Amino acid sequence: MTELKPVTQTDANAAKPVQKTLPDAQTVTAVRHWTDRLFSFRVTRPQSLRFRSGEFVMIGLLDERGKPLLRAYSIASPSWDEELEFYSIKVPDGPLTSRLQHIQPGDQIILRPKPVGTLVLDALLPGKRLWFLATGTGIAPFASLMRDPDTYERYDEVIMMHTCRDVAELEYGRQLIAGLKDDPLIGEVVGDKLRYYPTTTREQSPRMGRITDNLTSGKVFADLAVPPMDQAHDRAMVCGSLGFNSDMKAVLEGFGLREGANSDPKEYVVEKAFVG
Ligand code: A2P
């Protein structure tokens, strides 16, 4: 990809062009395409970058005119990983993802090393059971949080509900969770505390239906043999499309949970999954 290579500028006084490195450039180390709509990629991590699991950073490429084209991406890798991982949708006419989907190992991307976000453990009051509620690429911040030992130190039980249109779109999360128990760094801490509840809505699979419907009908509580959500014990983090987030807020408020923030921890927090 031409836009990922260092920008070449012609110096009026020099016979040869001079190489100028992209500001905040990081190098792509791996790319994996999961479906024709989804891909993940890994990049080098700036040595000084510290982040809290669940936070996002701005990443992107230079556009045709050499201007940075940046979007928010949740960091999917755990904070102890040497590299950074991201999980992205491919929007055919999306200004950034239509080009970002073509990156290859060795290419450069721009990464602004200023992590922020509301999906952090500190934005929730202590509780017993933590629910991660995601549609599509909204699983990305939870891919980080599910690998954070702090998650399991704070909660007795962690439930990852993920809904996609079809089975293939669940695969990124399925493989990650399947590998957790045997992970030498985190496996023991996770133990039996993490429960996974994947569903599809447009293809037959063992578990079906939207997260919102499975919560309001009580199906997920019955399937997992846990009590219905309540303000005293349950905490939730939500990440998906705008429609999902707003419907989900209504469902959680219906169970008596209130929206929190870094500065004002309560029972649930919400973040929009990146699209574009
Ligand atoms: P559905 O197939 O019924 O629309 P998308 O790929 O469009 O982002 O959707 C990802 C998943 O999120 C799909 O399974 C979709 O279900 C579901 N979904 C979309 N909108 C909502 C919503 N408002 N509430 C709950 N689930 C939703």
What does this structure look like?
The chain contains eight helices and 13 strands. The protein is an alpha/beta fold. The strands form three sheets. The protein has a six-stranded antiparallel beta sheet. Strands 11-10-9-12-13 form a five-stranded parallel beta sheet, sandwiched between helices. The protein has a two-stranded antiparallel ribbon with strand order 1-2. Residues 1-19 have low confidence and may be disordered. Residues 135-136, 163-165, 201-202, 210-212, 241, 243-244, 247 line the site of adenosine-2'-5'-diphosphate.
What is the average per-residue confidence, as pLDDT, rounded to a whole number?
92
The low-confidence runs, each spanning 5 or more residues with pLDDT under 50, are 1-19
Strand percentage lies at: 25-35%
Write the H/E string, N to C.
EEEEEEEHEEHHEHHEHHEHE
CATH class of the largest domain: Alpha Beta
Question: Count the strands?
Answer: 13
Give the strand order of the largest sheet, numbering strands 1, 2, ... along the chain: 6-5-8-3-4-7
Tally of helical segments? 8
Radius of gyration: 20 Å
Helix fraction by DSSP (H/I, runs of at least 4): 10-25%
